[in-house]
Design a protein that fits this description.
globular, about 130 residues, binds iron/sulfur cluster
Length: about 130
């Protein structure tokens, strides 16, 4: 209905912190291209190949990008084997490995970093993109 212009309000109800409701609503509007500006963060659904605490890393990335004005797609992927390829449409992303991670752009691997430097390496790369 929103996409057809039949409304201008979106209410999301979640169990837990109401702040998450606002964040979810923003993400839905952004995914529908009804709200522009700021990064879109995507993460893989995880599977048996997952080699990293993806939930924690995704939350850290989301928090670190709260004030980023760039209209970019940022991928947070669970494994180095398939992550970069599965997220090739992302402008920038990270993929978790065993004690390390890959930073990639549009599916192309830029470099490997130690696990504890994944977040800072991603943020540095985004900063170099103007964020
Ligand atoms: S990126 Fe890796 S961990 Fe994530 S769903 Fe794909 S194969 Fe599984």
């Amino acid at each position: 209905m929103l996409r057809k212009g039949l409304g201008d309000t979106l209410r999301v109800s979640l169990t837990g912190d109401p702040v998450e409701e606002v964040k979810s609503a923003k993400l839905i509007l952004k995914a529908m291209h009804l709200r522009e500006g700021g990064p879109e963060i995507i993460s893989c659904p995880t599977c048996g190949r997952t080699r990293i605490d993806l939930d924690t890393l995704s939350r850290q990335v989301e928090k670190a990008l709260e004030d980023c004005p760039l209209n970019i797609k940022v991928a947070v992927m669970g494994c180095v084997v398939n992550g970069p390829g599965e997220a090739r449409e992302a402008d920038i992303g990270v993929a978790g490995g065993d004690g390390e991670g890959l930073i990639f752009k549009k599916g192309e691997i830029l470099r490997k970093v130690p696990e504890n430097e994944i977040l800072s390496a991603l943020m540095n790369e985004i900063a170099s993109m103007g964020g």
